[in-house]
Amino acid sequence: MRNLDKYDIEWILREDLKRVLSTEIFYKYSRFDTALDKILCEQTLKFSNPSEFNDPFDGNECILKLNHDTKLVEKVIESNKTQTSREQRRKLKREIYSKTSYAPILRAERDKFKLSCFSGNYNEVLMWSYYADMHKGLCIGFDFPSKYDEKFLLCPVKYLSEIVPLDGSSDLIRTILYWITTKSIRWKYEDEIRAVSKTQTKEPIEFITYDKKYVKEIIFGCKVSPQKIEYAIKKLKKNGFDTKKIIFKRMIINENTFLLKDEKLMNTAHNSKLLGRR
């Protein structure tokens, strides 16, 4: 197996951009209260360091398998010049060169980024089970641009059946983007798209605000009661959302398969009567 070089990485990231541009809605699964109070009413998205995620391979340096590259080491160490002393940089170089390992410096670079997770799919049973409180939560559909001002960049996750080595010659930022958006094929059902942000703090979690105009769909889990649906829509209207411009749905069990399907709800704050089924 040959190593991925800088041209391969650039091609992969270009294809990632094409996929994001072809995705109309980005879906966020969440618990009911978190979705309604934090994500919607407070208009905030939670961004976390990949080391906080439930996949132990997320942000793990074993995914890169970089060959030793002196220029890359020097470039990364130089980028941290203002945050480290000369002796610290010398010590770090000795450690990296002696072990031919990028682990210390790669972790430092990785920790400069935080991620928020979305999906290209709103009707995946496992996603509702794992991330939306066992179907008692919400799924919010956003139509963010691929680059949202200076706040974040949207990148799809790549799912691999095996780890492919890199030759380490690619641009540092491109290498990091490839690294933090690569997962095992076992997670492919998530159809994940990640919002990538350059961190502003040293804390593992931070919150980024967005404009409510990007909220296009709100989908309730199949175990959310009509009363809670009505309560949620009323609260959104009270908090300044134009509920007539948002598509409201709820998921229901498809009695002929082990799948879910959605049914559309009236777009008013006082009526959750169904319009029909898809």
Any descriptors?
8 helices; 25% strand; 278 residues; disordered C terminus; 31% helix; single chain; alpha+beta; elongated; 14 strands; four-stranded antiparallel sheet; six-stranded mixed sheet
Calculate the mean pLDDT score and round it.
86
Query: How many angstroms separate the termini?
Result: 46 Å
Percent strand: 25-35%
Write down the overall geometry. elongated
Biggest sheet descriptor: 6 strands, mixed
Stretches with pLDDT under 50, minimum 5 residues: 268-278
Q: How many DSSP E strands?
A: 14
Number of helices: 8
Going by helix content, strand content and strand pairing, the class is: alpha+beta
Protein model, in words:
The chain has helices at residues 6-21, 32-41, 70-79, 86-99, 103-110, 125-131, 172-180, 226-238, and strands at residues 26-30, 44-48, 113-119, 138-142, 147-148, 152-156, 158-160, 182-184, 192-198, 205-209, 215-220, 247-253, 260-265, 274-277. The protein is α+β, with helices and mostly antiparallel strands and 278 residues long. The strands form four sheets. It has a six-stranded mixed sheet with strand order 1-4-11-12-13-14. A four-stranded antiparallel sheet has the order 3-9-6-5. A two-stranded antiparallel sheet has the order 2-10. Helix 7 links the parallel strand 7 and strand 8 (182-184). The longest helix has 16 residues, at 6-21. Residues 268-278 have low confidence and may be disordered.
